[in-house]
Amino acid sequence: MSGTYLGMPAFPEAARVSTKNERLRANLTRATRTIRDKRAVAVGELDDWAQLRQAGKDIKDRTLARLDEYLLQAEAAVQAAGGIVHWAADAAEANRIVAGLVKAKGEREVVKVKSMATQEIGLNEALAAEGITAYETDLAELIVQLGDDLPSHILVPAIHRNRGEIRDIFTEAMGRWGRPAPEGLSDRPADLAEAARLHLREKFLRAKVAVSGANFLIAETGTLVVVESEGNGRMCLTLPETLISVVGIEKVIPTWRDLEVFLQLLPRSSTAERMNPYTSTWTGTTDGDGPAEFHLVLLDNGRTATLADEVGRQALRCIRCSACLNVCPVYERAGGHAYGSPYPGPIGAILSPQLRGLASEVDASLPFASTLCGACYEVCPVAIDIPEVLVHLREQVVEQSSGHRVERAAMKAATWLLDHPAAFGAAERVAAKTRALHPGKLPLPGPAKAWTDTRDLPQLPAEPFRDWWKKNRTPEVDR
Fold first, then answer.
1. Percent of the chain at pLDDT above 90?
2. Which residues contact 67 (CB under 8 A, 6 or more apart)?
3. How far apart are the first and last CA of the chain?
4. pLDDT of amino acid 55
5. In the chain, what is the greatest distance between 2 CA atoms, to the nearest angstrom?
6. Which residues pair with 289 in a beta bridge?
7. Which one of 99, 327, 369, 420 has the minimum C-beta count within 10 Å?
8. Which among 193, 279, 232, 283 is positioned nearest to 111, based on CA atoms?
9. Nearest 10 degrees: CA dihedral of 234, 236, 241, 242?
10. DSSP-assigned letters across all residues of 252-282
11. What is the pLDDT of residues 358-385, one digit of tens each?
């Protein structure tokens, strides 16, 4: 990935601040509970949901096991349909490719359909450095952009904002980006949507280049798929003369038949809808219909390294539904910005550290941003065992961190002691004989003191159980 959000502290410090924001917590609580309650109803309508979930998991696992083959198949199909395929090893290469394509057209602006991959690589900022303005067209992404903000949710990037805040952002900032907000704009959802529609319409009609992501890439035909709820994606994918799609290599699926499974799983898990309002598909270019030029940028950016991890690779199954965020008690209280990544919540806590590595303080803290309650695994439509990956990543953090030397030394000593019964028995006897000298509470310094001050250490017995058993057992007991 291109790096953590500039200036973001580690999760504990960021969460310590965000959890004190009462408005943020109220906005998140209201929104996440509404979404998850509706999702439960939508999922409950299907008797075969468990089978669909298993099918989605199996398709993703089979694809990841032969990812190289399917990517080459997709590349050949895209090229046969008139598209041009670019391979990007990392964020910097992907950004160079996109910026170069836009400048080659002599353009200085692009319209964008919502794309997690372009957020991941920091494409908007990279284009701005080249003198190119990227206009977000998804309503929530537009709110974030106009508010000089960062997205905080996978499905609803502006979930941390309420209607009054959105109205104020539109009133203050729309004029600087294009058509200003109507006079006397209210905070009614219909009025806010209409203001956004009018603001964006001129950009759709003017733009010559569009940038998209894709929810799926079908290898057998080279077809890309975007699912969305507003119609802005359809405008970006059809009106401009040039379309550039930046797609993570894990988004490939083998066949159209596989797509049928995910078009049932994704809408119900994300927006709690039986089917998606707008499902756009495109295959290369067609004379007189849609963009005349199509470029596909296949993005690695840490995915190959993630694929090599037998436990962590399951994160690549993710279809970006955000169901795990909506049930997570940590996300609900801390908010998405605390994760320091475009991927917040439970999936972000396992995906970002794998894509970016564990070198930064932010990424090393993310695997610990969870209670391991398992709610995320229960709702995941492709059965990603997020708690398992979290524990796996925690082990890696401990292994590479010098701050855990004492803990590692203690664990090694305990392992040796438990492997040597005679030494363990002797240690028990010493502990029993010196029990009068043991403190009632564990004398830990710093923040841990608040925890140990309210918990008493258990008292040791006068003699170890092994010694008591030797003195009191009888032949009858042995029989």
1. 80
2. 249, 250, 252, 307
3. 65
4. 98
5. 95
6. 286
7. 420
8. 232
9. -120
10. EES-HHHHHHHHHHHHHHHT--SS-SEEEEE
11. 999 999 999 999 999 999 999 999 999 9
Q: In angstroms, rounded to a whole number, what is the distance separating the alpha carbons of residues 198 and 177?
A: 13
Closest CA to 322 of 167, 113, 155: 155
Token duo for residue 107: 């353009």
| Tokens read off for 363 | 């990424």
| Residue 227 CB-density burial (10 A; 0-12 exposed, 13-18 middle, 19+ buried) | buried
Residue appearing with tokens 């809808």: 273
User: For residues 355-389, b (16+ Cβ closer than 10 Å) or e, as one string?
Assistant: bbebebebbbbbbebbeeeebbbebbbbbbbbbbb
Hey, what amino acid is at 104? A
User: Computed from CA positions of residues 134, 140, 145, 149, in that sequence, does the dihedral angle turn out positive or negative?
Assistant: negative
Q: How far apart are CA 316 and CA 368, in angstroms?
A: 20
- Token pair belonging to 296: 């596909």
- B/e letters for 20-36, b = 16+ CB within 10 Å, e = fewer, are eeeebbebbeebbeebb
What was the pLDDT predicted at 1? Answer: 42
pLDDT tens, residue by residue, 175-215: 999 999 999 999 999 999 999 999 999 999 999 999 999 99
CA distance 297 to 87: 6
Q: What is the pTM of this model?
A: 0.86
Nearest to 396 by CA among 408, 385, 380, 384: 408
Q: How far apart are CA 353 and CA 364, in angstroms?
A: 7
Output the average pLDDT for the chain: 92
Residue 281, sorted as left (phi over 0), alpha (psi -120 to 50) or beta, turns out to be beta
- Asked if residue 247 lies in contact with residue 214, where contact means CB atoms within 8 angstroms, the answer is yes
- pLDDT tens digits, residue range 26-56? 999 999 999 999 999 999 999 999 999 999 9
Q: Which two tokens stand for residue 154?
A: 């996978």
Q: What is the pLDDT of residue 2?
A: 44
Report pLDDT for 101: 98
**Residue stretches of the chain with pLDDT short of 70:** 1-7, 402-406, 445-448, 450, 474-479
Whether residue 216 contacts residue 248, with contact meaning beta carbons closer than 8 Å, is answered with: no
**Ordered strands of the 242-248 beta sheet:** 84-88, 293-299, 242-248, 209-212, 109-112, 133-136
Q: Are 94 and 123 in contact (CB under 8 A)?
A: yes
Q: Is the Cα torsion angle 186, 188, 192, 194 positive or negative in sign?
A: negative
